[in-house]
Amino acid sequence: MKTATVKRVPRTFGHVLANILSSSYLGAYRYYTLEPIKKIERDQEEIVGGQLINALVEFRRLKEEELSFIAKAATLSAAAVIGIFSWPSTEHTIWVAKMLWNWSFFMSTFSMIGSAPTRLLQHLPEKDNNEKYDERTVKIALNLFLRPVDKSARAGGKMKARKISRSMLWVWQCPAMLMSYSWVLFLIGYALHVLSPVFSPSLGDVSSTV
């Protein structure tokens, strides 16, 4: 009993930490990434019936919709940072705000160029009646979401179902994470800029040398 409890502690801690880190985009993360992948995990054996193909098609549709929005939002975030640095008042703002704006620009840029998910979507069916996606091809597509098959793990003589791959889950949500963080950092930096008059003059002197 104690051993099982101890083993659950790292998993629980990881789950809580993941929720905290994704809090700024949790709704989008669940709608566009987590729930569709969970559906693929549930339907991984339903190849003949078509449920799995439908799940893959739906995931591709949702992810294309999300990536299109992310590209626009990240572009707007980068443009906002470039625009705010053109303000004369930013020369005397607190240095922390400038640092946050630079990190915001960095994250929005990498969100735009992080096109790995876009390329991966090419391996998924666009329509549920796509004939080229036979059983073998669909199983290959599952590698984009699920862990490799564990041939040593069997349940009643049958291969156990594959679980969601955490590394692939991170890949699929990474553009949304970077875009979200870029806006969070930009807004925090802007709040510090607005509050610059309340800081001591020494902080203003430091910021003018950055």
Question: How would you characterize the overall build of this protein?
Answer:
With 210 residues, the chain is mainly alpha-helical. The protein has one domain (24-208). The protein has eight helices and two strands, in the order ααααααββαα. The protein has helices spanning 2-21, 26-42, 51-84, 95-113, 116-120, 135-142, 166-194, 201-208, and strands at residues 154-155, 158-159. Strands 1-2 form a two-stranded antiparallel sheet. Helix 2 (26-42) packs antiparallel against helix 7 (166-194). The chain is elongated.
- Strand % is under 5%
How many domains is the backbone divided into? 1
Unreliable stretches, pLDDT < 50, 5 or more residues?
Answer: 206-210
Helical amount: 55-70%
**Span from first to last CA?**
56 Å
Structural class: mainly alpha
What is the total tally of β strands?
A: 2
The helix/strand series, from N terminus to C terminus, equals: HHHHHHEEHH
Mean pLDDT: 82
Instruction: Please work out how many helical segments DSSP would assign.
Output: 8
Biggest sheet layout: 2 strands, antiparallel
Shape: elongated
* Strand order, sheet with most strands: 1-2
How big is the Rg? 22 Å
